[in-house]
Amino acid sequence: MEASEGRYRVETGCAARALVRRDSLVATAPPAPRWLLIENRAGWPRQALSSLQSATGMERALGDEVGRACRELGIRPVLIRRYGRYARADLPPAEPGVQGPDEQSGQLGRRWGLVDCRVGQRVVRWGQLAADEQLLDVLAGREVGTVSSEPVYLVCTHGRHDACCAVWGRPVAAALAAAYPERTWECSHIGGDRFAANVVTLPNGLFYGQVSPDRVVELVEQDAAGVVVPDLLRGSGVFIPPVQAAQHFARAAGHAPSVDNLLPRTVEELPGNRWRILLASTTGPITIELSAHFDTVNARLTCAGSSPTQIRRFELHHLTN
């Protein structure tokens, strides 16, 4: 979006500009080994946890408390909703939205989900909220919910955070919901606005970017089969970016793209922003040495961001089988 213009335009939004620049998706997944999913029956607020309703009227305090507990536990909280609700609530400022028909209908009985994406511990649990304060019991382990064998697909459509998320995300959510209505959820901000449409597959914990409506069903079917889609993959939220980059370089060298291949065995940080990483592959161990660099670009990485800014790039130095 141009600073001189007060309106959002698709062709000048951060997602369109990133496509033109050919921004790399590699190793851009944020940390997210565990997730707290909170069903939301109102339009997205700017800050997701500000939607929590306290019986004492202390909404901001409850949101802050839930956010603090999530940070301490390494859990990423997001709001979720089914596709097709509040279709106009999150449009960019150029097209003012109206509240959905259920905006004032209340949030009681909505679902919560707790997802662990860590290798060997992957699980999805669902429960019902009697009151939003119950989320603190969920985070403390006093509410365990019911285990589900169904994967969860999140599509970011948080237009009040960045218009590109809604504009690019909603068509993807529509295509995915048509194929897998019970697995598909729109979600609030998950990061990487310029890579919209952003999709996360749970419990595998994989972030995908620049996903189009005609590729999203293929993507989740591959995920359900335990295979990653490398050209759309941002990385795994379970691993730090250098490990994500090492996995990318190994796949590019021909190693199998299965979800559970190329798991890190050792991660050694070296001087000069370099790492030596040992990955376990189906064909034997792989040692990778790589470095991180920050390139200054005259671009905004979000529609509301500033320019110039820096983009991290990983460089492969050695790959030894």
TrEMBL record:
InterPro entries: Aim32/Apd1-like, Thioredoxin-like_sf
Domain of life the protein comes from: Bacteria
UniProt-listed Pfam families: Suc_Fer-like (PF06999)
Protein name: Sucrase ferredoxin
Lineage, opening ranks: Bacteria, Bacillati, Actinomycetota, Actinomycetes, Propionibacteriales
